[in-house]
Amino acid sequence: MQERELIPHLFRTEYSKIIAVLCHSFDLRHLEIAEDIASETFLKATEIWGIKGVPENPAAWLYTVAKNKVRDYFKHHAVIERQVREAMKLNDIGTALDFEFSHQNIADSQLAMIFSVCHPENSADAQICLALQILCGFSVEEIANAFLTSPETIKKRLHRARVNLRNGNFQIKALSDQEVKARSESVLKTLYLLFNEGYFSKTSDQSIRKDLCFEAIRLALVLTENVLTDSPRVNALLALMYFQSSRFDARTNDRGEMILLEDQDKSLWDQELIERGNHYLVNAYEGREVSKYHLEAAIAYWHTTPTGENKWQHILQLYNQLLLIEYSPVTALNRAFAYAKVFGWEKGIEEAEKLALDDNSHYYSLLGYLYAGVDVGRAVSFYEKAIALTRSKVEAETLRKEVRRLIYK
Amino acid sequence: MKDFLFIYRADYSTYPSPKRSPEEMQALTQKWMNWVAGIAAQEKLVDRGNRLVNSGKVLKSNGSVSDGPYTEIKESIMGYSLVKAISLEEASKLAQGCPILSYDGSVEVREINAI
């Protein structure tokens, strides 16, 4: 039983490592070969471990098998061997085969792979799908599940993205200063979106949501392990992700309905993750830079603290700064909430109504919330507008409950 | 949407100067931030603009160069921002609540003449 659970977990973490190292050693154009080899390696593991039991060091076992499969592959595919040789302008294929699954090589390869996948020519959605498949070892079905869409849609999206990946002449071999600088922003954005995809996912499947979030954290950690990519921004992003994750178990009830931050059972907040968040937040502020990740992390930090005199004043100022860096409807709505917390519901309502986000369900649920203590009739009608607009069943159910509570109070 | 310039004017002798306590200055900064971010929250801020240093020179056609500009007129330009709005009326509405108004100052709202 234990063995059956071990393999899928191992698949996911080791799959991406094997792919990364193989692509790093050969070329991105041979991504499919790398994937075939990784899959065959796991197939062999499933067959042999099922009979003989799991070896003492499963990862090392997998690496050895993968390496042997690479050798076999090149022996039996002379044509492709020649192509690879030409593509790499190498006289001796042996050089290409001379790679190690060392800790350092895995780390470097994964880093290079992250930078390859976050190709600015691909849409953000495509980058996330690609990241999930290649960097995180998710199946098409799992990705479709997370996006609440059909596997066919995901397949199409992945196909286009992979064509771009192959054609883009991104040098996966050595990551240069320039490339890192040029692509860092896009890499961080993809990791940020990957995390949000999990945290605010359309799917109600908690385990998939958590997986997405922790994969985003794992990849961000890879970035902090290399001096080239260990920037204040990555640290800020990590702090943000840890703070958010700390509230994972507290933010929904057993029916999957969202619980407002204020009403959450704080004893369910994961202190260890908060500590890690604090650690990376301190790192993030070592430079002088203040990015949107810094501000979001700082807001998330304040949410982990007990309500004090100036808490909401701080949060409001951070949202102000965030809006001045980059407008988003979510930020505008959150800022209006903070505004209401500082200046009272009535001023908050005034501020919120100015936003006029007439097609946004969250706009109406915020107004409903703010009006609840002022004018129940209006609060209910705003909540009903939000229910009509939302595409999330869970959110609609949470709002309906709130309406019932207001009416029968 | 058209662009509009906000020109902030106030009397330097009555507007809070940096001689105030850090606490007071911070409160004033927060007021400005709350107001400007309120415009940004409506996706109508084009450019936060700048504050101007309170000393300068004024050159005139008769060749005179004087220290200024505040020696002759009571209200000086203190800064500017750029916003976008559908009409002058909407732009003026955005200007409401500007902190400078609570210090006897004014906001002039002018449409940018896009060629």
Task: Identify the overall geometry of chain A.
Answer: elongated
For the sheet with most strands of chain B, the description reads:
4 strands, antiparallel
Number of helices of chain A: 20
Low-confidence stretches of chain B: none
The separation of the N and C termini of chain B measures: 15 Å
In the predicted model, the low-confidence regions of chain A spanning at least 5 consecutive residues are none
Largest interface, by Cβ-Cβ below 8 angstroms: which chains and how many residues each? A-B, 18 and 12 residues
Number of strands of chain B: 6
Strand order of the largest sheet of chain B: 2-5-1-6
Shape, principal axes of CA atoms of chain B? flat
Share of helical residues of chain B: 10-25%
CATH A-level architecture of chain B = 2-Layer Sandwich
The share of residues in helices of chain A is: over 70%
Average residue pLDDT of chain A: 85
Instruction: Characterize the biggest β-sheet of chain A.
Output: none
- Structural class computed from helices and strand pairing of chain B: alpha+beta
Descriptive report:
- The complex is a heterodimer of chains A (409) and B (115).
- Chain A has 409 residues and is mainly α.
- Among the domains of chain A are: 101 residues, no CATH class; 74 residues.
- Chain A is 72% helix and 0% strand.
- In chain A, helix 6 runs antiparallel to helix 7, helix 7 packs across helix 9 and helix 12 runs parallel beside helix 14.
- Chain A is elongated and about 75 Å long.
- Chain B is of the alpha+beta class.
- Chain B has a single domain, classed as Dimeric alpha+beta barrel (Alpha-Beta Plaits).
- Chain B is 23% helix and 35% strand.
- In chain B, the strands form two sheets. Chain B has a four-stranded antiparallel β-sheet with strand order 2-5-1-6, covered by helices on one side. In chain B, strands 3-4 form a two-stranded antiparallel sheet.
- In chain B, strand 3 and strand 4 form a beta hairpin.
- The longest helix of chain B is centred in the first third of the chain and has 19 residues.
- Chain B is flat, with a radius of gyration of 16 Å.
- The two termini of chain B are 15 Å apart.
- Classes of the chains: A mainly alpha (409), B alpha+beta (115).
